[in-house]
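REQUEST FORM: STRUCTURE PREDICTION
Request ID: SP-0412
Submitted by: Lab K.M.
Chain count: 1
Length (residues): 260
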Amino acid sequence: MNTMTLWHISGWEFAALAFAALLVGFSKTAVSGANTVSLAIFAAVLPARASTGVLLPVLIAGDLLAVRTYRRHAHWPTLLKLFPAVAAGVVVGTLFLEWADDGAVRTSIGAILLLMAGVTVWRRRRSDAADDGDEPDAVTGRAGRIKARSYGVLGGFTTMVANAGGPVMSLYLLSAGFRKLGFLGTSAFFFLIVNVGKVPFSVGLGLIDGRSLLLDAALALFVVPGAVFGTWAAKRIDQRLFERLVIAATVVGGVQLLLR
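STATUS: Completed
RESULT:
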């Protein structure tokens, strides 16, 4: 990655990245899915490959705040079932990033965003409104194992290539019967562990270095107010309306990247 380009972003571009970091904090503590908007902003402002490395530490900052807020509600049997398949997906995604140039990554991110928007629409139509609670219904048997492995591999690949594993994991957790608190707690630990595990791969690919971390340090300051607002808004926001806005923004971002 030519990290010198990180020193030449304009004030407006930094403002866009700061707004995206604010959305990261909000999505981690309130409504999963806003990360796709952040991804589109980062990939529009920065080179596509570089954007994945700069965004990753910002996501980890959001994960830490989410774990602090919802740490008591994680469902560890589900996490342990998912991690082997996710690890395989991360390895496949790393190999893809080793091969792909900036144009291929940009096109892939755009296509993934549109796919995830479609997944989110499908999820909203197929799933019932969720009530508070911690324990999911068990997903057992051969079909349950196949589903966990399939979602895990796809989630690992999308999160490594485009930091866009959120919608995939959201669909899996909802299909497994999670309620709001269990969903937020389990996803918080899931993404903290997965994103931290991606750091060595990103460093090895040259996507994270000293210059990118300096930019991350500035952007992390904006994650905190987003997370605070998300915690306050979690019980008050009209989630259906917000999801519609997220889907619309995701589609616009995906199309913009495909046409860029």
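NOTES: The chain is about 80% helix and 0% strand.
Reviewed by: T.R.
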